[in-house]
Every structure is written in structure tokens, then in C-alpha cells.
Amino acid sequence: MAITQDEELIFKPLTPSIGAEVQGVDLTVEIDDVQFQRILDAWISWGVLIFRDQALDLEQHVALGRRFGELYSHILPDAKTPPGYPEVIELHTDAHSERAGGESWHTDVSADEEPPMASILHITETPDTGGDTLFASMNAVYDDLSGPMKSFLSGLTATHRASRGYNAVHDRNQPQGPSTVPLGGWEFPDSHHPVIRTHPVTGRHSVYVNTIYTSHIDELAPDESDSILAVLLERIHNPRYQCRVQWRKNTVVLWDNRCVQHHAVWDYFPKLRHGNRVTIKGDRPFFSPPA
Ligand SMILES: O=C(O)CCC(=O)C(=O)O
Ligand SMILES: [Fe+2]
Question: What is the residue range of 216's domain?
């Protein structure tokens, strides 16, 4: 593979707290170590990086993912993968689709004991308008909680339940929320993760509960858990914590699942949108108290 050299990287922040567009890099060839380190640092700072005009093939997409770490294969036995690429998930929505993936705030596969660290999505076909993805900084959501609330949540754990995610379909006739259909007999164990998660690189804290997978806070009574989760999940809707990516053909977005949530907007039915995602393995979420 050729090595890119002497290219000036430019980072253009989308908002003060989350998202930056990266210019001056060609992801179809192997990135040199200096550029890679700068991209890694920017990704850790901004949580979401956007790269335009990257005509990646599947081989290049997988190679890019491997720069960040070992690749993750989705636990769902019928996840759509292109032939020969078990680590790639295909995203496709068109006039025949009954659901679109990720149409609620979530972080990818948080029901796993070791949820993926990062996802890299490459969109190859997108409608002229619509099909944006929103991202939210869960560090920023945490930072704005009151001191007593931060203390209260510290050390609590929540149950993340795979069946909530994989049984939920977002019926286009029910845009207000998921309806539930049974999924073919698969059972996945629950995972218990800290409600406040410490980022292993930055040491920053983030709120680590999400609409798709989190069923309840383990240590609370059901009504208490419902109320506290409602407060936390409502905060994500505040646009001050968000950035919004408008995809074009061959846009690539890399996000940090440890401190960012995302929500794909399916406002373009019956138009077609297509892309591929590579996901990078992560470690077990942990909480360490603020110093
Ligand atoms: O389609 C999108 O923009 C994102 C869908 C999603 O949630 C994902 O790929 O993890
Ligand atoms: Fe997702």
C-alpha cells in the first residue's frame, strides 16, 4: 500500500463540544504514523470525525478499521455482511424497508460485556436530502449535571439488554417509537455497565445509558429507575450537546462509542440510502471516581 506523505491535515470543528471535519487525508491508502496519531488525537478530543470524498472499497475500509484496533463482528447471527467480509455490516434502506438501523439514541451494541470502542461508517448512496445522523457528547451531558446528581449516579450500574435493541423495529408507520417483534429464538445475556463511565484515554466521565439497550438502573426501585433514566435520556435531546452530520456520497464518519451516542434519522422513505460499517473492539466499561 502507498503511504500518504506531506499532506497538511486540517480539522474544522462542527460545534464547541463535539464533531470535527478532517481535510487533507486520503483514507483509501495507508495513513503514515504521524498523520494517524494526529487523527487519533483529534478523534479523542472531538468524539466524531467526518471525512469527505473517500471512495473506500471494502478492503480499504477494513484496513482503516484495523489501524484503530481489532475488528468486532456483530453478535447478531443475521447481521447483513457482504460476502467475504464478516467484519463489515451493510446498512441499506429503501422503499421496501420496514426499519432503519439506529433510529433512536444509542451507542453501538452496549449490551455486550465489552462494547465496541469505535465505529466507522462509510455511506455510498444517500438521498439528495435527509438521512442525516445526529451525534451527542455524553461527556458534555455529564458535565452539565448538578454536583449532587453526579455523586448520586457515581458507582451505580445499569442493565443493558440486547433483546431490547434487536427485537425493536422502527416501523415507519409508527415514527413515535419502536414496536416490538419477536426475533428468531436468539438469547443474549444482559450486561451491567456503570451509569457513569470513565473514558480510558481521557479520564473524562460520561453518561453511559441509552434508549435502545438500557432497561433499568440496577440498584434503584423500578419507579426510581424510570424517573432517573428519563431525566438522563431527555438531556441528550438538548441540541447544545449535539452535532449533525449531513452525509454525501463517500462521506466516512468515525465515532467514539465510549462517550458519544448517535441517532440516524429516517426521514427519506422511500428513497435509498446505503453504506457499510466497520466496528472496532472495545474494553469493559468502568467507573473511577473523579480525582
Ligand atoms: O445510518 C446511520 O447513519 C447510523 C446507523 C447506526 O446506528 C450505526 O451504523 O451504528
Ligand atoms: Fe449505531
Answer: 10-280
Total number of domains in the chain: 1
In a domain, residue 85? The reply is yes
Ligand number with the minimum distance to the CA of 267: 1
Model pLDDT, residue 79? 72
Which of 72, 126, 169, 277 has most ligand 1 atoms within 8 Å of its beta carbon, as the pocket-test mutant?
277
State residue 2's pLDDT score: 40
Instruction: Specify the pTM.
Output: 0.92
Ligand 1 atom showing the smallest separation from residue 121 Cα:
9
DSSP symbol at 138? H
Alpha carbon distances (Å) from 31 to 44, 66, 129, 190, 254: 17, 12, 31, 38, 15
CATH number where 25 lies: 3.60.130.10
Cα 149 vs. chain centroid, distance in angstroms? 25
The CA–CA distances, whole Å, from 217 to 112, 190, 286 equal: 16, 13, 15
Helices (H), the chain: 33-46, 58-68, 138-143, 147-153, 162-167, 222-235
Q: Is residue 117 part of a domain?
A: yes
